[in-house]
Design goal:
264 residues, alpha/beta, Nucleotidyltransferase, domain 5, 2 domains, 22% strand
Length: 264
């Protein structure tokens, strides 16, 4: 099975290529970089083999994605249709979510959250929390039965840094790095300490409250660029998995094909 998986986020678009189930590459592109995005899509799709049964030379693959930014979805679909003549199958629109969702309105949940949670549960096969530190931070719970129960959302590091800079008179704009001390001896380091250790503390507290409700401490999986920065100081986190959403997209499509075959 050959799949190009697209995670259309708020600031970047991740493109992953999987041939016969094997990861070939995953790259992240700024969403506003249209030329770069087009080239990655064209080059990636060119690696997909042509279907032996196709007289038109169509490639034996599918392009699947999930999106939280409609404007970029339209851009991607335009590139795929114009340059490749291929459709984009969106999870939550064209394809079902890969696990049950127990929410007030399942249609409102970001499909990226659900596919990441499904990918983690597929490995853990027990209660699991997925913490995705991206533009926004989502901390989601899947119960032991594989049901997406919901989660918590808070602003990501860049939003916090930008908010402090834009809404105060004297606080500087800083880049978040791992602090060398628990407290800062200057304003920039104090901001870094506050955001860095504040995020770790918030995550641990939220997971603790989940654990109290379900009666057991769940496994905790972290992903996202912010997670790459802080996971080493989170002893309660079991694994850091980069590109978990992209891997969840592939899993979602495989499950869809499997369930479709079982119904035939």
């Amino acid at each position: 099975m050959n799949i190009m998986a697209l995670d259309i986020g708020n600031t970047k678009i991740a493109v992953g290529l999987f041939l016969d189930g094997q990861e070939q590459f995953i790259v992240k592109i700024p969403g506003q970089s249209t030329d770069q995005l087009r080239q990655v899509l064209l080059d990636g799709w060119a690696k997909v083999p042509v279907s032996p049964s196709s007289k038109e030379g169509k490639r034996d693959g599918v392009i699947v994605g999930c999106s939280v930014k409609p404007a970029w979805t339209r851009l991607v679909e335009h590139i795929l249709q114009t340059d490749l003549g291929e459709p984009l199958k969106l999870i939550g629109r064209d394809l079902p979510l890969p696990i049950p969702v127990w929410l007030d309105d399942p249609a409102q949940v970001g499909p990226d959250r659900v596919v990441a949670a499904a990918a983690a549960y597929d490995v853990v096969e027990d209660a699991v929390v997925v913490a995705d530190f991206g533009t926004a931070v989502t901390i989601d719970l899947v119960d032991k039965h594989g049901v997406f129960q919901g989660g918590a959302i808070m602003p990501g590091f860049e939003i916090c840094l930008q908010g402090l800079y834009e809404n105060t008179a004297l606080l500087p704009k800083v880049e978040l790095t791992r602090p060398t001390e628990p407290w800062g001896r200057n304003t920039a380091d104090a901001i870094r300490c506050g955001l860095y250790y504040g995020a770790i503390g918030a995550l641990e507290e939220i997971v603790r409250r989940y654990a109290e409700r379900i009666g057991t401490w769940p496994q905790v999986v972290m992903t996202g660029s912010g997670g790459e920065l802080i996971h080493q100081d989170c002893p309660f986190v079991d694994n850091y998995v980069p590109n978990l959403v992209v891997k969840g997209i592939v899993l979602a499509y495989r499950k869809y094909i499997q369930q479709k075959a079982e119904l035939q």
